[in-house]
């Protein structure tokens, strides 16, 4: 996760024009190159590119036992805490630390994978520290190249702004709003060209090309836009602008987090510590959780859907879900089924309130244990007479007609709980009116004959 995007106010600044221009050229066949080497302030109010002087208490050379214990607790689920031992020395200063998280609002919704980092931020808040949540409304237009094999498409500023609003609303289900400082990085990145040039003069191309994502793309002779190349530079300057003490991100963000330290060093600031956290596997148990791959559990999913998705988590990764989402081990002596049920109850209660788990679990039992129909079934109106079943399934459930025919042939379509035969495929409308059509185990529609 990282900062992003820029909103335009009146005429675009020189820097905004450069953003569009830099997105077009690309570095190709870089093996040869490698061998050689919601109010935002006006332009006048934005930060100039200059060293900032932090009023930071001197770090002790040897941290106290109490600070060491605090650091160990805060880094318990981290993959890496760098530099080694630094966080304990920072904690021993006796002041609230500024804990940075940068988010590019490229999508509106949060899934449980995002909450791994948000949970860690909440731990820091409960320990008395301040979270600085940077909404990358500028860098989102650039697009974080981390883990990407191709350039991200540039987003429209209006879409970025809408995504940011939704993201914050969901993030505050976890974060303490009173202990969170929200900043938009267009405050300091929407700069004039002379400031941008001054910033771009600080790192080397060789350093920017060190990231693993770029190495893979160069080896495959895939293009890298100049805009992607400067993304870590812009993201790193966020750490300078907010004077971050600690920055947190997933393991895929390590290069960006370390580059923030490079930028702070360039501006003669104290260097932030970094914490990298594990990436939560999706419900398929293979790929990282992502909405694009469909293996996600959204924090705004309905309670019964959230519970049902948790119950489908593979046994092999159940321990990771408990550790990363609840910071606990599964209940001792509980089998996988009961451990999933308890995890589902806890997560549903967290995001939907203490009364929601009972109904969500009962819904699951009704459908998947007792194989009954749900209490409430959405209506689907149809007008065809006779109704062609593959077309009816396509309209009711959004599947293709070929998928519908295959499901019928495999016995995966039921009418009022009875499996439908492969033939016939056409039915009189009166015969279907008011009956419940079922596709698979958990998709239901009540058929209503239209005019």
Q: Overview of this structure, please?
A:
- With 451 residues, this protein is α/β, with parallel strands linked by helices.
- It has three domains: 14-42 and 94-277, Rossmann fold; 303-369, no CATH class; 379-449, Structural Genomics Hypothetical 15.5 Kd Protein In mrcA-pckA Intergenic Region, Chain A (Roll).
- The chain has 20 helices and 15 strands.
- Strands 2-8-7-3-4-5 form a six-stranded mixed beta sheet, with helices on both faces.
- α12 (226-242) packs across α13 (254-266) and α15 packs parallel to α16 (336-352).
CATH superfamily of the largest domain: HUPs
Query: Taking Cα atoms only, what radius of gyration do you get, to the nearest Å?
Result: 26 Å
β-strand percent reads 5-15%
Q: What class, by secondary structure content?
A: alpha/beta
Mean pLDDT: 83
Task: Assign an overall shape.
Answer: elongated
Enter the CATH topology name of the largest domain: Rossmann fold
Q: Give the number of DSSP strands.
A: 15
Q: What is the count of distinct domains? A: 3
Strand order of the largest sheet: 2-8-7-3-4-5
Task: Kindly report how far apart the N and C termini lie.
Answer: 51 Å
Count of helical stretches: 20
Helix content: 40-55%
Biggest pleated-sheet summary: 6 strands, mixed
CATH class of the largest domain: Alpha Beta
Query: What is the architecture of the largest domain at the second tier of CATH?
Result: 3-Layer(aba) Sandwich
Contiguous low-pLDDT stretches (5 residues minimum) are 1-12, 24-55, 145-151
């Amino acid at each position: 996760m990282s900062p992003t995007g820029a909103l335009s106010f009146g005429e675009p600044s020189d820097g905004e024009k450069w953003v569009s221009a830099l997105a077009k050229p690309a570095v190709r066949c870089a093996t040869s190159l490698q061998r050689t080497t919601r109010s935002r302030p006006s332009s006048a109010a934005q930060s100039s590119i200059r060293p900032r002087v932090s009023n930071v208490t001197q770090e002790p050379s040897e941290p106290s036992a109490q600070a060491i214990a605090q650091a160990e607790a805060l880094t318990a689920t981290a993959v890496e805490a760098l530099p080694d031992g630094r966080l304990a020395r920072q904690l021993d200063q006796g002041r609230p630390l500024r804990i940075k998280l940068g988010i590019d609002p490229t999508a509106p919704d949060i899934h449980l994978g995002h909450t791994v980092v948000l949970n860690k931020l909440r731990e820091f808040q409960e320990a008395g520290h301040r979270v600085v949540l940077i909404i990358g409304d500028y860098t989102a237009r650039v697009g974080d190249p981390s883990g990407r094999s191709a350039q991200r498409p540039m987003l429209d500023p209006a879409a970025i702004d809408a995504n940011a609003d939704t993201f914050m609303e969901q993030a505050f289900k976890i974060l303490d709003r009173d202990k969170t400082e929200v900043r938009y990085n267009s405050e300091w990145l929407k700069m004039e060209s002379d400031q941008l040039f001054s910033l771009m003069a600080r790192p080397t191309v060789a350093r920017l090309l060190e990231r693993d994502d770029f190495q893979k793309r160069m080896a495959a002779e895939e293009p890298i836009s100049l805009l992607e190349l400067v993304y870590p530079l812009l993201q790193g300057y966020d750490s300078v602008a907010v004077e971050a003490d600690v920055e947190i991100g997933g393991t895929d963000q390590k290069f960006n987090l370390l580059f923030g330290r490079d930028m702070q060093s360039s501006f003669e600031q104290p260097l932030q510590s970094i914490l990298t956290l594990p990436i939560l596997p999706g419900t398929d148990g293979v790929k990282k959780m992502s909405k694009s791959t469909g293996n996600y559990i959204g924090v705004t999913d309905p309670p019964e859907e959230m519970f049902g998705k948790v119950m489908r988590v593979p046994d092999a990764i159940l321990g990771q879900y408990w550790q990363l989402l609840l910071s606990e081990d599964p209940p001792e002596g509980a089998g996988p089924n009961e451990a999933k049920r308890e995890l589902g109850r806890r997560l549903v209660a967290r995001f939907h309130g203490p009364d929601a788990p009972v109904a969500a679990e009962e819904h699951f039992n009704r459908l998947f244990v007792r194989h009954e129909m749900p209490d409430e079934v959405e209506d689907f109106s149809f007008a065809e007479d006779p109704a062609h079943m593959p077309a009816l399934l396509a309209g009711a459930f959004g599947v293709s007609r070929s998928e519908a025919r295959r499901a019928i042939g495999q016995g995966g379509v039921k009418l009022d709980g009875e499996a439908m035969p492969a033939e016939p495929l056409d039915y009189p409308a009166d015969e279907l009116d008011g009956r419940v059509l079922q596709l698979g185990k958990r998709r239901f529609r009540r058929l209503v004959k239209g005019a």
